[in-house]
Amino acid sequence: MAIDITLQIKLSVEESALEDALAEYDELTVSALVTQIVDKAIALEHIETEIKAGPNSLEEYDKVREV
User: Fold this and answer.
1) pLDDT tens for residues 3-46?
2) SS (HEC) of 29-43
3) Given phi > 0 = left and psi -120 to 50 = alpha, else beta, which region is 20?
4) Is-contact 55 30, C-beta < 8 A?
5) 0.85 cut: is pTM over it?
6) Hey, CA dihedral for 6, 13, 34, 26, is it positive or negative?
7) How would you class 30 by CB atoms within 10 Å of its CB: exposed for 0-12, middle for 13-18, buried for 19 or more?
């Protein structure tokens, strides 16, 4: 039987590292990156990742940098 666990995680990432990670893989989002990291660490049945604040894509990151 699967057990659902809901987490809230706050991450701090250097701007250059985030930009490099998002630019390296076409169409990669922060939520997809976090999903991949968690799934590789623990074999999970289902992972649902939602970004509550901060940029989720390279395009969103660029908009934040413009301000």
Assistant:
1) 777 777 888 888 888 888 888 876 788 888 888 888 777 777 78
2) CHHHHHHHHHHHHCC
3) alpha
4) yes
5) no
6) positive
7) buried
